[in-house]
Amino acid sequence: MLNTSNKLAFLLAAPFKVLFQIWTLWSTLAYNTQSCEWMLVQNPPSIPTLLLAIVVCHFRKIKLVIDWHNFGYSILGLKLGQNHPLVFVAKVYERYLGRIAQYHFAVTNAMCDVLKSDLGIRGTILPLHDRPAPLFIPLSDADQIAFLTRHELTAAEVDNIIASKTRLVVSSTSWTADEDFSVLLDALRSYSESATTDSPHLPELLVIITGKGPLNQHYVEKIRDLESRQELEMVTIKTAWLSFEDYASLLGAADLGVSLHMSSSGVDLPMKVVDMFGAGLPVLGYDNFKAWPELVQENINGKGFSSPAQMSSIMKDIFDPTNETLDTLKEGAVRESKRRWSSEWDPVAGKLFGLTM
Question: Are both 194 and 99 inside the same structural domain?
Answer without folding.
Answer: no
